[in-house]
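As a warm-up, study this chain.
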Amino acid sequence: MQDRFSFFPATADRLADIEAVFDDCADGRNCRCAYWYRPNADYKAGWGEGNRNWFRSLVAEPRPPGILGYHDNQPAGWCGVAPRVVFDRLRRSKPFAPVDDRPVWSINCFIVCKPFRRRGLSRLLLKHAVEFARANGAECLEAYPVDQAARASNGAELYPGTLSMFLDAGFVEVARRLSARPVVRLECR
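Now compare it with the structure written out below.
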């Protein structure tokens, strides 16, 4: 089954496929990862079409903002990965404040289209996001997953990924300022 998946940087020539993945997700359709990039007021004001237009300009920039997964040439999933410094929310966040002064990259969002859920695609997206970050010079990767064991409810807000998925991929917990949201890291060199 895994051999039917392929992965590519999220470049402008793949915009229609990226939008198909976001449009398959209720929140993704309106957020477009703007939550991480834009100041909160702009993110909320742009909910829907404003964030969609903003994201189109982001994808047109030279550095792809993530990885796109396909299953038999059908868009199936998304993983946002970029240098931490580009994410406005991370610059202002106390729970996800920098652990140190290293120039890390951040993985912050996974979206898997409904037909491909529970098939290991998030783990494959993570693997390829790590490869993408390494190929683009990342020395260290960081993420802010959900620790389902520490979470009070079993809500569906797993966009940042699960702690177990990251630990299985070799990430280690380096900080925990919220009970269910650790900061995890992976050395890339």
